[in-house]
Amino acid sequence: MNENDRDNADELRSGAEAVTDGGTDRDVVEIPKTIELPRLLDFYELQNEATTEIVEFYDNLRDGQLTTTRCEECGELHFPPRIVCPECRSEDLEYVDLPHEGELFAFSTVRAGAPMGMEEEVPFVTGIVDLGPVKLSARIDDAEYDDLAIGDPVEMKIVEIDGPVDHERVFYRFEPQE
Ligand SMILES: [Zn+2]
Predict the structure, then answer these.
(1) Separation of CA 48 and ligand 1 centre (Å)
(2) If you measure from the C-alpha of residue 90 to the centroid of ligand 1, how many angstroms do you get, rounded to a whole number?
(3) Single pTM value for the model
């Protein structure tokens, strides 16, 4: 709110006839006194059973396999994995393996505004990878924007996240195939 807004607001208040006083017995809304900013700005989802309902996705990834959910009711394949099918609302989903190799469908380079933990790594490449059954967005490691072309073959790599949480976390990235 700038100075003018405040003046206008004061005018409105003094000019308006109060019909009610908003109640004297007011509810109190609690908000946290302190906010752990690193937690909120963390790019990576928490990955244990207590914090996510797609823990199986992360467990599979930790074991080296990229997976996603497929609806057992309508057959729809989702990415990212779901807990309810967005097509038919069924909760009967199964985890299926995804290929680890695909093609660059689109890509760009990040030069500023990188998420926490990646600020030192700019510029870096992000892209959309076409795995066949699904397309997903991911960082493309070990690649320079100028050296890439749409259709380039890429393969998945798994990175471990060393963050401010008490459980192991992993995430997927891609890199050009040798
Ligand atoms: Zn479905």
Answers:
(1) 25
(2) 5
(3) 0.77
